[in-house]
Amino acid sequence: AAPYCGPQTPQHRRFFDRFCVKSVKLKLEKYVVLPGKLARYHTEGFLGEGSYGKVVKCTKLDTNEAVAVKIVRKDCFRQGKKEARMLKKIQKLDPEKNNLLKFIENFKYKGHFVLAFEMLDVSIYDFMSRRNFAPLHLSEIRVVAQQLLVALNALKRAGLVHADIKPDNIMLVNHESQPFKVKLIDFGLAVKVSKLWFAGTIQAIGYRAPEVILGLPMDESVDMWALGCCLAYMAIVQIHGQPRDDVLKKAKDGLRSLDDLLITRPRPKDPAEPENSLGFISLLKRMLLVDSNVRITPTEALAHCFITMKHLSDERYSPNVPSAWKMATGQIHLFLENLTCF
């Protein structure tokens, strides 16, 4: 007989029964109409699946608009209601201005809790995957970073923590028509700062702040740590095949600090790239400070020289960035009076 690979103790088996056996895939008929409170939604196709349920593409029948609908598993009904309450708070922050997911409504369908959202394009993770995990240009990272810092600034003002920032939860809105315009999504773990201590395990392990791991006091700065990890992820090249000899020589002892990220970048073609890289690493260092009390805040980060380009006299963008940066600069002019670089 095949070896048993499940939980080994009675306690583990009870945990497995509670969280795994019940997670049987939802059975959703294709091409049905979901009757919401504000509209009716015609299911068109499967978009993805998370720990709490499935996301399907739907057409909002009254407007013929494409929307995303999340159908929560029956045993996660309470989590769905919690997410809906948080999304209603988010809607008061002007989602379009602050680069946050637009929530439409919630309703029940055959015992499932259902959430309807605006339809977005693709996650940063999937976008990177499609380009074989080649790093983004720093001018592209700057545009993404600025928009997400605006989002974190809005959440901070509202006393909220996202608690699950990762590349999967950063979505391109429509990369073809609005290059590198992004929104922060998935507020299933979001919580008030005052209740963060009682929230249980938060953040994906690769994006988890030190204070979360160590069980120390936490605040909204856990989101800044996670965002710093995401920006580093976008900047680091995924090396395939034999690296250049100079990269092998410099990296033989491993990456010891954020300064060593420079050796993972392709050889710069833009004369401004070295200075750009130093500005980027300067920002990362302040986002990834182990001491959360001195970690950079969203307002301070929006005024950092990497975001404002104060250190550059002639920035040369990648082909896709001009329209996105033009869109973004209107959101940071209020911060320019208090510029800081280090």
Automatic annotation (TrEMBL):
<dbReference type="InterPro" id="IPR017441">
    <property type="entry name" value="Protein_kinase_ATP_BS"/>
</dbReference>
<dbReference type="GO" id="GO:0005524">
    <property type="term" value="F:ATP binding"/>
</dbReference>
<dbReference type="GO" id="GO:0045944">
    <property type="term" value="P:positive regulation of transcription by RNA polymerase II"/>
</dbReference>
<dbReference type="GO" id="GO:0005737">
    <property type="term" value="C:cytoplasm"/>
</dbReference>
<dbReference type="Pfam" id="PF00069">
    <property type="entry name" value="Pkinase"/>
</dbReference>
<dbReference type="GO" id="GO:0003714">
    <property type="term" value="F:transcription corepressor activity"/>
</dbReference>
<keyword id="KW-0808">Transferase</keyword>
<keyword id="KW-0547">Nucleotide-binding</keyword>
<dbReference type="GO" id="GO:0004713">
    <property type="term" value="F:protein tyrosine kinase activity"/>
</dbReference>
<keyword id="KW-0418">Kinase</keyword>
<dbReference type="InterPro" id="IPR008271">
    <property type="entry name" value="Ser/Thr_kinase_AS"/>
</dbReference>
<dbReference type="GO" id="GO:0046332">
    <property type="term" value="F:SMAD binding"/>
</dbReference>
<comment type="similarity">
    <text>Belongs to the protein kinase superfamily.</text>
</comment>
<dbReference type="GO" id="GO:0003713">
    <property type="term" value="F:transcription coactivator activity"/>
</dbReference>
<keyword id="KW-0067">ATP-binding</keyword>
<feature type="domain" description="Protein kinase">
    <location>
        <begin position="41"/>
        <end position="307"/>
    </location>
</feature>
<protein>
    <recommendedName>
        <fullName>Protein kinase domain-containing protein</fullName>
    </recommendedName>
</protein>
<dbReference type="InterPro" id="IPR011009">
    <property type="entry name" value="Kinase-like_dom_sf"/>
</dbReference>
<dbReference type="InterPro" id="IPR000719">
    <property type="entry name" value="Prot_kinase_dom"/>
</dbReference>
<dbReference type="GO" id="GO:0016605">
    <property type="term" value="C:PML body"/>
</dbReference>
<dbReference type="GO" id="GO:0004674">
    <property type="term" value="F:protein serine/threonine kinase activity"/>
</dbReference>
<feature type="binding site">
    <location>
        <position position="74"/>
    </location>
    <ligand>
        <name>ATP</name>
    </ligand>
</feature>
<dbReference type="GO" id="GO:0007224">
    <property type="term" value="P:smoothened signaling pathway"/>
</dbReference>
<dbReference type="GO" id="GO:0042771">
    <property type="term" value="P:intrinsic apoptotic signaling pathway in response to DNA damage by p53 class mediator"/>
</dbReference>
<keyword id="KW-0723">Serine/threonine-protein kinase</keyword>
<dbReference type="InterPro" id="IPR050494">
    <property type="entry name" value="Ser_Thr_dual-spec_kinase"/>
</dbReference>
